[in-house]
Amino acid sequence: MGAKTCLVVFTLGLLHVHIAFVASKAVTDQEAAESQVSNSQIAQQRIGDLGLLVDNHEHLHHDHHHEEHDPGFWKKKVIWKEGWKKYWKPGKKQIWKPDWKKIWKPIWVPINVPVWKDIQVPAFKKIWKPKWVEIKVPAWKEVKVPDWKKIWKPIWVPYKKEAWKDVQVPDWKKIWKPKWVEIQVPAWKEIQVPAWKQYWVPKWVKVGIPGEKFLGKDHEGWEYTSHDLWKKKLVWKSAWKKIWVPSKKQIWVPHKKLTWIEDYKQVWRTEQKQIWVEDKKLAWKEAWKQVWRTDKVQTWVPDKKLTWIEAWQKVWKPSKKLEYVPDKKLEWKEAWKQIWVPDYKEIWLPAWKKIWRPVIINEWFPTPDHHDDHHHHHDVGWDRTDLTSQAKVLWKRDNSGSVTSAVTESPSNTQQAVEATTTSIKSR
């Protein structure tokens, strides 16, 4: 009966786990779908806001302009960005290496100057006789010297060895029961946060042209020149505009979670009890043993060496007697002096090389206005201020990642802004 009850409880637990898994997957798919729908609604809402802006500008500016202006175009431009690249160039480093210089030192060498004298005297002839001389030469003799060698002896050491004995002990088995618990799960709420966006406004300024300029001749040959002319220069001024960007705020919503609570059931389990039994193990004991090692001792052994000794033999003959008079002679002795000479060692030196890397950017170019000639009669003169430039539109690409990529100042270019924004949103 108990086994059937446990089987029913286990089946119900598996069924609850399966239901919880299916429910959590459905909630995850629903949240993913809602996030996709919310993203598409945000994009449509932004495009709709830009469309309302287009309609308002067209309604306000309809009374002043009766013809449509060319909205301009985007153009990719390649610019070169300055950079530095590190490389290694060969170089030379001065070192000093030792060298020897040959020099000559003056020394006085004592000499005997021979002087011959004609006399009749007995003379002695120098001769050399061989002779064996007793000498001692070194030799090595091998001898035995005592020494101690470390050895290890095996011995049996008695010890207590642990063993395990199986015993039956009562125990409580932990079981788990399913239970639904109210929890709070995190969710994200769409909010709008303020941000600042930078845009650039074109402005015409006057710049003086120094010097004299030739204007031409009339029919009588008179030449006309002008001094200190003025020209128009287009500059861009920075401005900031406050915008609202979408963001997310974390909130907590109630949810149900299937949890398992623990319970205990008494069971009998087999457990091992530690006991100690007598045993012995083989160990190694340190010991010393006397040994004899061979060593060498230096000794001196007798030997014979052949030498030549000097001897004189007396003879009588008429000859000249050689006498030596002490004197000294100046000679030059060869010597070496250490000097240091310069040398160059090949090394690698770090250097920086300026490089230019191509960077492709998108730049907005407004299309020049095409009007009749009678609309430009008022531009002739010294004042070249373009009154129509105040109604032009500047479109500047924003690299900060915001959704709105242009600032509208004229209703004639608002439709182009909507198309550019829609293309940017689709590409992202």
Automatic annotation (TrEMBL):
<dbReference type="InterPro" id="IPR009078">
    <property type="entry name" value="Ferritin-like_SF"/>
</dbReference>
<feature type="region of interest" description="Disordered">
    <location>
        <begin position="404"/>
        <end position="428"/>
    </location>
</feature>
<feature type="signal peptide">
    <location>
        <begin position="1"/>
        <end position="24"/>
    </location>
</feature>
<dbReference type="InterPro" id="IPR032134">
    <property type="entry name" value="DUF4816"/>
</dbReference>
<keyword id="KW-0732">Signal</keyword>
<protein>
    <submittedName>
        <fullName>Uncharacterized protein</fullName>
    </submittedName>
</protein>
<dbReference type="Pfam" id="PF16086">
    <property type="entry name" value="DUF4816"/>
</dbReference>
